[in-house]
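Figure caption, in words: inputs first, then the predicted bound structure.
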Amino acid sequence: MTRLLYPGSFDPVTIGHMDIIRRAARLCDELVVAVMHNPEKAGALPVQKRAELLERACEGIANVRVIVHGGLLIECAAQVDATAVVRGLRPLGDFEAEYQMAAVNRRLGGVETLLMTTSEDVAGISSSIVRQIAAFGGCIDGMVPEGLAQDVAAALARGSGKKEENPWTNESR
Ligand code: COA
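Bound structure (coenzyme A present):
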């Protein structure tokens, strides 16, 4: 059984993430999408909200499972018994960081990483762009998965995951 692991902050999920999720799900028996902690990012949405939005976005894709994991990526990969990790690669700026992350995860945990190039039509969309537009009251329709724009905007307005007490669990939802 081929099981790919797609980790990210998903703060919030965008159509860029969904592009990778849809395409990666076609390449494996199961795609596990893991909401994880990026220590370099403060976090805007509560972790469970990020996972809930992802679950709703992935409802129509049969072989996708969403989890939350607060540890190292190599631990998450071992826990779900992942064949490999998949990450999206945008045309500008992603390669160096993704290369380093892949190298460290292979060295530390023997985990292979597959880098999937982002589709051209979503390459300019990012979670921080969505957060910025929402903060100014702009329209984020078409940047986040269909049907989620209002909920994402409301959740961003409600505030930050920083106030959460130990939001990370390492269990499947
Ligand atoms: N198209 C367009 N944009 C995309 C995209 C795509 N296909 N895929 C991702 N993005 C954007 C996201 O919107 C996000 O935008 P932002 O920077 O404006 O917020 C950015 O690319 C990357 O975010 P995302 O992929 O959601 O998560 P991340 O890069 O923050 O995730 C972790 C990093 C969580 C996987 C990493 O920090 C990790 O492994 N953490 C666990 C701890 C660990 O093991 N650390 C050691 C790793 S070597």
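The chain is about 35% helix and 15% strand.
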